């Protein structure tokens, strides 16, 4: 990514700070540091006058090396004390995105003039609307996960193991010059309702469900997809439930629009789930944003305060978990624009294989 892109992000964020009571912001979450500097290392300090510093106990490599003040204390285990030594004990409001409880208590005790306030919502509000460049990377990652899922669909057969599926995914994702941001989840048979990975040597038997969930990342930007397959000898009841889950996913997608409320989408989707015969208590998160993280704002759930913004990229498709019976999953990535919603992943949703 270019130096100019990071400069623009910093300028936009500093502009937000100047219109708030917060005078300095400490960002330590890796995805936030990466967003503003291109490096995951260290803790980032941004002040309302535009000064930007990175404090790290490991070497920092950033396109903004000429713009950012880098303080490397190699070998030091704790970075926060160095940051607050730099700030000093003066009357001011300092924002932060995340901070260990013991660190928070220590700062309050040792720097009584400082006022600490969580500002993670301000950061996520800026990160939620993806730039054209970010969308391009997520679009590429979406194409890769779609392709890899289609390959896996062909791999599924009697005796295919969880390890075989994971290897096929990794081989194709790496071959297309993407990364695996986390280990794929492969659940077979009884593991599907437990929502856990099956043992590597667990083979698929006729009449079993296979649930696959994974992501690929391109330059740190993530796309995620999940599918559920039935290897031969399908059960009508499970197929019916799967079709209901797809209907729910499509309904949630139809509600996405710029400036819509995430919690109102959740409420309407929950009512629709009951209307078509799904128990909402058996369903996981209805939707969540993706970007530099697999789960970021906006969240479509009962407690969300998020507003859907133009340029939001959202994973839609709640898992359905019926303890003692089975688990189902079908999710895709969508881009929200002023012109409507664009589906970025396109792997076949047909459940029966073999």
UniProtKB/TrEMBL annotation:
Residues 137-337 form the Peptidase M24 domain. Keywords: Aminopeptidase, Hydrolase, Protease. Gene3D superfamilies: Creatinase/methionine aminopeptidase superfamily, Creatinase/prolidase N-terminal domain. It comes from the Archaea. Residues 9-128 form the Creatinase N-terminal domain. GO terms for molecular function: aminopeptidase activity. InterPro entries: Creatin/AminoP/Spt16_N (IPR029149), Creatinase/aminopeptidase-like (IPR036005), Creatinase_N (IPR000587), Pept_M24 (IPR000994), Peptidase_M24B (IPR050659). PANTHER family: AMINOPEPTIDASE (PTHR46112), XAA-PRO AMINOPEPTIDASE P-RELATED (PTHR46112:SF2). This is Aminopeptidase P family protein. It comes from Caldiarchaeum subterraneum.
């Amino acid at each position: 990514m270019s130096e100019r892109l990071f400069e623009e992000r910093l300028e936009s964020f500093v502009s937000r700070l100047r219109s708030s009571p917060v005078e300095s912001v400490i960002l330590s979450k890796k995805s936030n540091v990466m967003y503003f500097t291109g490096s995951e290392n260290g803790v980032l300090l941004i002040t309302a006058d535009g000064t930007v510093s990175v404090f790290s106990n490991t070497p920092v490599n950033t396109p903004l090396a000429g713009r950012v003040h880098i303080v490397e204390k190699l070998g030091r285990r704790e970075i926060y004390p160095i940051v607050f030594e730099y700030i000093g004990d003066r009357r001011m409001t300092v924002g932060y995105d995340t901070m260990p409880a013991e660190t928070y208590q220590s700062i309050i005790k040792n720097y009584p003039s400082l006022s600490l306030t969580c500002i993670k919502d301000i950061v996520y509000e800026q990160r939620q609307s993806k730039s054209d460049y970010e969308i391009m990377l997520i679009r590429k990652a979406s194409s890769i996960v779609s392709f890899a899922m289609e390959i896996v669909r062909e791999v599924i057969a009697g005796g295919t193991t969880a390890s075989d599926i994971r290897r096929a995914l990794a081989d194709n994702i790496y071959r297309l010059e993407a990364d695996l941001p986390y280990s794929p989840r492969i659940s077979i048979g009884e593991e599907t309702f437990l929502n856990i990975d099956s043992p590597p040597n667990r083979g698929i038997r006729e009449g079993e469900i296979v649930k696959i969930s994974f992501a690929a990342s391109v330059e740190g930007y993530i796309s995620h997809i999940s599918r559920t397959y039935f290897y031969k000898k399908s059960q009508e009841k499970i197929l019916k439930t799967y079709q209901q889950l797809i209907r729910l996913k499509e309904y949630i997608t139809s509600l996405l629009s710029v400036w819509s409320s995430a919690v109102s989408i959740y409420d309407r989707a929950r009512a629709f789930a009951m209307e078509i015969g799904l128990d909402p208590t058996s369903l996981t998160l209805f939707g969540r944003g993706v970007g530099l993280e697999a789960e970021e704002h906006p969240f479509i759930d009962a407690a969300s305060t998020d507003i859907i913004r133009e340029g939001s990229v959202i994973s839609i498709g709640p898992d359905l978990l019926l303890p003692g019976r089975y688990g189902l999953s079908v999710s895709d990535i969508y881009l929200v624009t002023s012109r409507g919603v664009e589906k970025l992943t396109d792997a076949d949703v047909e459940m029966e294989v073999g």
